[in-house]
């Protein structure tokens, strides 16, 4: 017994002397932020999955390296005068990895499947603009009543409920990716398994080991296969950002899709251009409860916003993030008029504080006669630091803060169930690049996201008008007006715009920083 | 079979049968406690549309009364099915845990062996050279090992040996070189505990009557230590194996994360945070079975090392 134990330990020790190999020639070792929850494009909801699915499948439209929408399986499309009918012409040479042609019927099959209630698709609602989609998803209508029609093998017609100028953007989401009907019909939920999955993108699935790696091989049947340089992509799921950085620094992987913010300064100084900080399509904000007596006063909300030093938050807590002066992050698509300017952001912090003190004093709130507010946030070191910093800023103007911390599920369940709160932390990453995807959150009938219970018929009317407007410039103006109203009424206090952080090896060519943080492996190449 | 062996067998069987109601109670308590926690598996940063949520609840049977869900879970479990994960939707819980368990067990087993071997050696040396430099070194190292947690040791090891020296990989599992750092990181605190336990027991054993007698017979010192003293001195280390296994389990949560190992450690925390009900139940079942078996094994091992133990 004892000798056997010793032999085992000796073996373990002996391992220390063997060296580390680096098995990555011609293989893109791609750090991903975690495990995909699924590779089923209809059950997917996370960014981690999006990275993999975009390599495996090609939708009607795709993102290029700079995240601009370009033709994918559809080589062109026409929109009817009233903006509700989209007719896509599919390319002749689009093939599935088994050689079958990609047809309009495949898209019909896929879109019906995502709306079928039994599929349990988390993101089904993103495609609700399609006529009858919601009714199918609630089970009130049969899947074949979905207004998606294969006119012939290469012509697909999609009819919408209302003109939806960002519909093409919507189709870039991974939920819009097609699936191979015979494979899904024959294998059910198992169609996602390696060896079974048939895909139509630049790569096919070879291996999928949870927490270990997902291996993709180049799809020789892909219509643009000649321009795909990388033969093999290994997606390495690394939840811990610091682990990814160490693996990258040790030369084991080519790219990390996120970084620990607290390490950013060191990474920038040590690795220079390999450290990428890019504006991202998202906003970190605090929701204010408009049903609370104190917070129902617009002057109070304005004062609370004014005294928050967002530069401090960006420099000292969430490094890499950008101070927010609007709710919609800059760089978003379909927004040529842009976010309105809010007067106090151009003033100095001292002036802003004086102004806030004045406003609150008039309401009888001073550091000597303070008002109490509770900040609710989901547990995380940085969320805590932000809340503490803001509590400090608010204390100067007579608002005393207490905290209510829950884990993420409990936090969002509380908000969803309309539990009571004063101020609640939240964040939003756009699903598609359009201002509507931000401003719709506080429409009065949005039960899911209007945490603040903001009710303003004027705002709703502007949003309705924008939804009916097919002229993009006019629509953009309407949305700007809506955002101006948002910034005046402050259902949410925008604090920071998100940034995407990444480490990209100098050997990896073709990685272009972009606001969507999408990087298809097919555009990249590796130099040794 | 000897009378003694039959006794041990009967004892083991009795213990295993006794574990069934324990397991049942643990599963029941865990099932209902999990459901008391606020929030559900679909409460994430992005709130789901009501229709969508309803569809999901129906798909996972969450729309049924709780007792029915409980009965269904038990029934599935009896058939070796731990149900679908609420998060990882392409696999069932027992498939996910089945993939990760061998990795965690390998890691834990190697760490335990390493800890036992080095711990016992160090403890013995320290006891033989009591109050010498070697002894102080062992005591100091033991104190260090206990106080510095794996979430410090593990990243430091990775930084030194993977990033700076480039000798070993910083992450992953499967090749021998990938196992070295995680096993050491996980074993280190246990080495410390076992060394201290062994040192104390060895000092006592060296003063005991039978060791003195053995010495008096003129047996060589090495023989006295290995054959007589060590046998008594490893007993505390063996009875520590139960708690050690538990410590390795919790330690592996950190080590697996730092070295990005495909084990099951991550599910203990993530499962609960995600309200992945079936995953939490799966980990509870595994830990419960594991602890029950390990305790039994330790009790049985005692018979090998301590002839005074009888199983009636």
| Strand runs of chain A, count | 19
Class by SSE composition of chain B:
mainly alpha
- The proportion of residues in beta strands of chain A is 15-25%
Strand content of chain B: under 5%
Main beta sheet of chain A? 7 strands, mixed
SSE map:
The complex is a heterodimer of chains A (528) and B (312).
Chain A: H1 2-14, E1 27-32, H2 47-56, E2 61-63, E3 69-71, E4 74-79, E5 85-90, H3 104-115, H4 133-138, E6 148-152, E7 155-159, H5 167-170, H6 181-187, E8 203-209, E9 213-218, E10 232-237, H7 241-249, E11 255-256, H8 264-271, E12 275-288, H9 298-306, H10 310-316, E13 322-323, H11 349-362, E14 371-378, H12 381-395, E15 399-406, H13 408-416, E16 423-429, H14 436-439, H15 457-468, H16 472-489, E17 492-504, E18 508-509, E19 525-526
Parallel strand pairs in A: 1-10, 14-15, 14-16
Antiparallel strand pairs in A: 2-3, 4-5, 5-7, 6-7, 8-9, 9-10, 11-17, 12-16, 12-17, 13-17, 18-19
Helix pairs in contact in A: 9-11, 15-16
Chain B: H1 3-36, H2 50-59, H3 66-78, H4 93-128, H5 133-147, H6 150-164, H7 176-206, H8 209-216, H9 221-233, H10 235-239, H11 241-258, H12 265-273, H13 277-305
Helix pairs in contact in B: 1-13, 4-5, 4-7, 4-11, 5-7, 6-7, 6-11, 7-9, 7-11, 8-9, 11-12, 11-13, 12-13
């Amino acid at each position: 017994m004892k000798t056997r134990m010793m032999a085992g330990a000796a073996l373990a020790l002996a391992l220390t002397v063997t060296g580390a190999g680096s098995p990555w020639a011609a293989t893109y070792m791609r750090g991903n932020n975690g495990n995909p929850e699924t590779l089923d494009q209809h059950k997917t909801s996370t960014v981690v999955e999006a990275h993999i699915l975009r390599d495996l499948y090609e939708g009607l439209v795709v993102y290029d390296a700079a995240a601009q929408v370009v033709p994918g399986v559809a080589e062109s499309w026409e929109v009817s005068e009233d903006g509700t009918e989209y007719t896509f012409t599919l390319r002749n040479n689009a093939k599935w990895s088994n050689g079958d042609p990609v047809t309009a019927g495949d898209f019909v099959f896929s879109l019906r499947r995502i709306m079928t209630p039994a599929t349990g698709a988390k993101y089904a609602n993103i495609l609700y603009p399609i006529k009858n989609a919601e009714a199918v998803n609630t089970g009130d209508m049969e899947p074949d009543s979905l207004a998606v029609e294969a006119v012939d093998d290469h012509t697909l017609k999609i009819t919408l409920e209302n003109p939806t100028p960002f519909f093409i953007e919507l189709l870039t989401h991974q939920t819009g990716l097609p699936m191979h009907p015979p494979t899904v019909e024959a294998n059910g939920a198992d169609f996602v398994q390696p060896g079974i999955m048939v895909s139509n993108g630049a790569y096919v699935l070879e291996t999928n080991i949870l927490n270990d790696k997902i291996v993709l091989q180049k799809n020789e049947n892909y219509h643009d296969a000649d321009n795909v340089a990388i033969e093999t992509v290994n997606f390495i799921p690394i939840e811990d950002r610091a682990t990814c950085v160490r693996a990258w620094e040790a030369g084991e992987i080519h790219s990390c899709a996120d970084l620990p913010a607290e390490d950013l300064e060191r990474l920038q100084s040590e690795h220079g251009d390999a450290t990428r900080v890019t504006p991202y399509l998202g906003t970190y904000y605090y929701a204010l409860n408009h049903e609370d007596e104190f917070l129902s006063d617009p002057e109070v909300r304005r004062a609370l916003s004014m005294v928050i030093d967002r530069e401090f938050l960006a420099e000292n807590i969430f490094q890499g993030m950008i101070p927010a002066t609007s709710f919609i992050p800059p760089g978003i698509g379909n927004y040529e008029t842009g976010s309105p300017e809010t007067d106090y952001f151009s003033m100095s912090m001292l002036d802003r504080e004086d102004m806030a003190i004045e406003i609150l004093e008039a309401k009888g709130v001073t550091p000597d006669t303070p008002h109490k507010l509770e900040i609710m946030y989901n547990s995380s070191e940085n969320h805590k630091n932000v809340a503490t910093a803001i509590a400090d800023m608010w204390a100067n103007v007579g608002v005393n803060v207490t905290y209510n911390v829950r884990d993420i599920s409990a936090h969002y369940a509380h908000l969803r169930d309309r539990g009571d709160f004063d101020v609640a932390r939240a964040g939003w990453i756009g699903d598609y690049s359009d201002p509507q995807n931000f401003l719709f959150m506080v429409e009065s009938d949005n039960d899911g996201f209007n945490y603040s219970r903001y009710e303003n018929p004027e705002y709703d009317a502007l949003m309705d008008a924008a939804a009916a407007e097919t002229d993009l410039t006019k629509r953009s103006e309407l949305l700007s007006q809506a955002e101006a109203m948002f910034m005046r009424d402050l259902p949410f206090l925008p604090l920071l715009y998100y940034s995407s952080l990444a480490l990209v090896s100098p050997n990896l060519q073709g990685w272009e920083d972009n606001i969507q943080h999408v990087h298809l492996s097919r555009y990249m190449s590796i130099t040794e | 079979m000897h009378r003694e062996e039959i006794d041990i067998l009967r004892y083991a069987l009795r213990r295993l049968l006794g574990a069934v109601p324990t397991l049942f109670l643990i599963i029941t308590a865990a099932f209902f406690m999990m459901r008391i926690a606020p929030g559900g598996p679909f409460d994430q940063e992005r709130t789901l549309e009501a229709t969508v949520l309803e569809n999901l609840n129906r798909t996972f049977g969450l729309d049924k009364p709780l007792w029915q869900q409980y009965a269904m879970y038990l029934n599935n479990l009896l058939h070796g099915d731990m149900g679908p994960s609420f998060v990882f939707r392409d696999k069932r819980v027992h498939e996910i845990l089945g993939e990760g368990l061998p990795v965690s067990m390998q890691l834990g087993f190697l760490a335990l062996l390493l800890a036992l071997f080095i711990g016992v050696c160090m403890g013995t040396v320290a006891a033989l050279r009591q109050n010498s430099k070697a002894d102080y070194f062992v005591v100091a190292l033991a104190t260090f090992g206990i106080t510095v947690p794996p979430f410090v040791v593990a990243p430091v090891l990775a930084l030194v040996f993977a990033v700076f020296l480039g000798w070993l990989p910083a992450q992953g599992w499967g090749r021998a070189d990938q196992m070295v750092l995680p096993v050491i990181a996980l074993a280190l605190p246990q080495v410390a505990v076992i060394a201290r336990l062994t040192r104390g027991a060895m000092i006592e054993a060296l003063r005991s009557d039978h060791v003195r007698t053995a010495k008096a017979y003129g047996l060589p010192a090495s023989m006295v230590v290995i054959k007589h003293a060590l046998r008594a001195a490893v007993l505390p280390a063996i009875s520590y194996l139960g708690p050690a296994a538990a410590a390795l389990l919790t330690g592996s949560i950190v080590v697996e994360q730092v070295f990005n190992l495909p084990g099951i450690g991550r599910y203990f925390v993530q499962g609960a945070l995600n309200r992945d009900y079936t995953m939490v139940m799966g980990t509870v079942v595994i830990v419960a079975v594991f602890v029950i078996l390990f305790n039994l094994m330790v009790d049985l091992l005692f018979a090998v090392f301590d002839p005074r133990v009888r199983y009636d």
